[in-house]
Design goal:
alpha+beta, six-stranded mixed β-sheet, about 25% strand, globular
C-alpha cells in the first residue's frame, strides 16, 4: 500500500467547535513551496463564499495552502460570508507566513448559518502546530459531515528512475449528483507539471469519476476539487508517455475516491455499476444512464432487492433520446432479464433477484443501435436516507 504522504506537503486537523459532538472540524493542507494549482467547482448557481473566493484565486495558478472547515457551509450569508471566507484565508496566511492570495478556502455543512470566523482565528495557532507530513488522515476526518468514514487514496509511479506520488482526501455522502457531485476533494502531487497540464488532467479525471456518480440527484453549493503540484520529488511530467502515465494514475485515484463516496452514501446498501451501450452516440448513452441512475423507482427497487426491470426500461424511455423498445437487452451481472424488449421469464427473474442480494452488482442496458456507450455509478434509496436527511440540522 502506498503511504498517504507526499513530499513537501504537510496537513493537520483539529476540533475548533463547529460540530456539536466535538469531532475534528477544521483542517489544513500546506505546501512548503509555491505549488501550481488547478480546481473545478460546483455548477450550482447558488455558490458558497469559499467557491467565489477560490474561483478568483486559482486564476493565478499558484497556491501554498488550503484551509477547510466542516459543520458550516458559509453559504447564503451575503457580504458577511465573503468577508468571513477572506478572513479565514488571512488567518491561515498570517500563521503560515505565506501570501494571503495563495491560500484557498473550503467549507461544508449547513447552508444559511452565519459563519463563526472567530473560531477559525482562535484555532489557527494550534492547527498550524499540528501540521505533519503524516497529517492527511486528520484532514480527511476534519472534512467529514454525514460521512461514516474518511476517504483517502494514494498512488505512486516513477519517471526516469525518479518516483512521485499523487495523494488525496475527500468527503461526500449525500447531495451527490454528476455535475461536480456534492463533495470536497484535495489532491496533491510532488511531481512537476505546468498549470495548463494540471487543469487538463484534473478536468478529465473529474469527468470520468466524480461526474459519473449519483447518490440522491441533488447538487451542492460548495463542491470543490483542488489539485496542487509542488514538484518536490524532482519528477517532471513532460513527454507524451509521462503525461499518459500521470493521467492513468490520477484517473484511477479519483475513481477510487468516487466509489468510496457511493459506498458510504447516506443509507446506501447497494452500489450499482450502471452501463449503457449500443446507443447511437455516447451522448445518448449518457442521457439514458443519467435517467436510470436518478430514478427513485429504480433506486427503491434496488433497495428492496426487487428485479423490477420495467422501471429501468421505463426510465430509459423518458431520457429524451431515440431508442427502439423492441431492441432492448437488459442484464443484471451476466443474467439476461430482457431480450428484444421482452422479459426472459420467471427463471431469469429469480436469478436476477439473487444478483440483487449482493452489496455491489452491474446493470447493463444494450440498445443495439450503435457504438455509443457511457456509465454511471449509482446506488439504492433506503429508509435510512430519509431518516438522515429529515433531521440533518438538528
Amino acid at each position: 500500500m502506498v503511504p498517504l504522504t507526499c513530499k513537501g506537503f504537510t496537513a493537520g486537523g483539529m476540533a475548533a467547535g463547529f460540530k456539536k459532538n466535538g469531532d475534528l472540524d477544521l483542517g489544513i493542507l500546506v505546501s512548503d513551496r509555491p505549488a501550481r494549482v488547478a480546481a473545478v467547482f460546483t455548477k450550482n448557481r447558488v455558490q458558497a463564499a469559499p467557491v467565489t473566493l477560490d474561483r478568483e484565486r486559482v486564476k493565478s495558478g499558484a497556491a501554498r495552502a488550503v484551509i477547510v472547515n466542516s459543520g458550516n457551509a458559509n453559504c447564503a450569508n451575503g457580504r458577511q460570508g465573503l468577508v468571513a471566507a477572506g478572513a479565514m484565508a488571512a488567518a491561515a496566511a498570517r500563521a503560515l507566513n505565506v501570501p494571503e492570495d495563495q491560500v484557498l478556502v473550503a467549507s461544508t455543512g449547513v447552508i444559511g448559518v452565519p459563519f463563526p470566523i472567530r473560531k477559525v482565528e482562535s484555532a489557527m495557532p494550534d492547527l498550524v502546530e499540528k501540521l505533519d507530513p503524516s497529517g492527511l488522515p486528520d484532514l480527511a476526518r476534519a472534512i467529514m459531515t454525514t460521512d461514516t468514514r474518511p476517504k483517502t487514496g494514494a498512488r505512486e509511479n516513477s519517471m526516469d528512475g525518479v518516483s512521485y506520488r499523487i495523494v488525496a482526501v475527500a468527503k461526500g455522502a449525500g447531495m451527490i449528483r454528476p455535475d461536480m457531485a456534492t463533495m470536497l476533494c484535495f489532491i496533491c502531487t510532488d511531481a512537476d507539471l505546468p498549470v495548463s497540464g494540471l487543469q487538463t488532467a484534473l478536468k478529465r479525471s473529474v469527468d470520468g469519476s466524480f461526474n459519473r456518480i449519483t447518490i440522491d440527484g441533488d447538487s451542492s453549493t460548495n463542491d470543490t476539487v483542488i489539485f496542487m503540484a509542488n514538484g518536490a520529488s524532482g519528477a517532471r511530467v513532460e513527454t507524451v508517455a509521462d503525461k499518459a502515465d500521470f493521467q492513468r494514475l490520477l484517473d484511477d485515484l479519483c475513481m477510487d475516491l468516487a466509489r468510496q463516496m457511493v459506498r458510504d452514501g447516506e443509507g446506501v446498501t447497494k452500489v450499482v455499476d450502471l452501463k449503457v451501450c449500443g446507443a447511437r452516440s455516447d451522448e445518448d448513452a449518457r442521457a439514458i444512464a443519467d435517467a436510470i441512475a436518478h430514478s427513485p423507482l429504480v433506486k427503491t427497487a434496488f433497495f428492496g432487492e426487487d428485479a423490477n426491470w420495467g422501471r429501468i426500461i421505463a426510465a430509459a424511455g423518458r431520457a429524451g433520446v431515440f431508442l427502439d423498445p423492441e431492441r432492448l437487452d437488459l442484464y443484471f451481472n451476466d443474467v439476461q432479464m430482457v431480450k428484444n424488449g421482452t422479459g426472459c421469464g420467471p427463471e431469469a427473474e429469480a436469478r436476477a433477484t439473487g444478483v440483487l442480494r449482493n452489496a455491489e452488482f452491474d446493470v447493463t442496458l444494450d440498445l443495439n443501435l450503435g457504438k455509443g456507450r457511457d456509465s454511471m455509478l449509482t446506488c439504492d434509496f433506503s429508509l435510512d436516507y430519509v431518516k438522515i436527511n429529515a433531521d440533518y440540522r438538528s
